[in-house]
Design goal:
Structural class: mainly alpha
Order of helices and strands: HHHHHHHHHHHHH
Distance between the termini: 40 Å
């Protein structure tokens, strides 16, 4: 396929993919006098306004919702990077009986839907006294099979020469993991952080189950409450949705430059 056609096709796919987001932003910027259901639809607002965002911000404690979502998402990312990397390192670099069986068992849990383990997790959360707490929202996502799989594959790509050189210098296993392996798989860590952040930020089902205190509501719960409060004015619902989506887009734009292949063998000379 010629490069021009390829760019044209990719551009068309990008426009189709971005259209729902553009439509959401357009609806959030439309004034009360504009008909958001007109046919044919009008993407560009004739009288753009930020009044919808102001009204949404004043009607519900969106500042508290953003704080709750940010705290939960950041802690979830931190715990995932820590526990997944600690689990993935021995599965990738150490030899011990049953290593492959343990890895297969961990990866197999990806096929188990969350709805199957939701009730046992809720019972355990209540028994641990974590209901209506930040830790209760984080508890099911402290580690993930996908994260262990991703980091194991990344650790396996680190040249053995680097590991052997560190061992000759007297490095311990923990020091080798911290000083050598983690910097070598930084792109994989950033990729996992993005996936975990987006998943935690947009999670609706588990916070809905484990949280009853409105002061602990995350943004998805806040937007759902907003939809119930202003069900007849979709401009306000769209404005709240844009507020909820904006931090995710910002995080992706900031971190996307780190998602590149890294030449971990550049320091190894034959």
């Amino acid at each position: 396929m010629p490069p021009v056609m390829m760019y044209f096709l990719l551009g068309a796919i990008a426009i189709i993919t971005l259209f729902p987001l553009l439509w959401l932003i357009s609806t959030a910027l439309k004034s009360p006098t504009e008909n958001i259901f007109q046919s044919p639809p009008q993407l560009l607002p004739s009288q753009p306004t930020l009044e919808n965002f102001s009204k949404v911000w004043q009607s519900l404690p969106f500042g508290q919702y953003i704080y709750n979502s940010t705290l939960v998402a950041v802690l979830t990312v931190a715990f995932n990077l820590l526990f997944c990397s600690l689990a993935a390192y021995p599965l990738a670099r150490l030899s011990f009986p049953g290593r492959n069986g343990i890895f297969i068992a961990i990866v197999s849990t990806i096929m188990i839907p969350f709805q199957i383990v939701m009730i046992p997790l809720y019972i355990l959360t209540v028994q641990l006294g974590l209901r209506n707490t930040y830790l209760g929202m984080i508890f099911p996502s402290l580690a993930s099979a996908f994260g262990i799989f991703l980091l194991r594959q990344a650790f396996m790509g680190v040249p053995k020469e680097i590991e052997e050189a560190a061992r000759m210098d007297g490095s311990s296993e923990l020091g080798l993991w911290w000083h050598i392996m983690l910097p070598a798989v930084r792109p994989a860590l950033v990729t996992l952080a993005i996936f975990v952040f987006i998943g935690s930020w947009s999670d609706f089902l588990w916070p809905l189950i484990v949280i009853q205190d409105e002061n602990l509501y995350t943004l998805p719960l806040g937007v759902a409450k907003l939809a119930g409060t202003f069900s007849l004015d979709w401009r306000l619902v769209a404005a709240g949705s844009v507020i909820a989506i904006a931090p995710v887009l910002l995080v992706f734009l900031v971190l996307q430059r780190y998602i590149v292949a890294t030449d971990t063998g550049s320091g190894v000379k034959g």
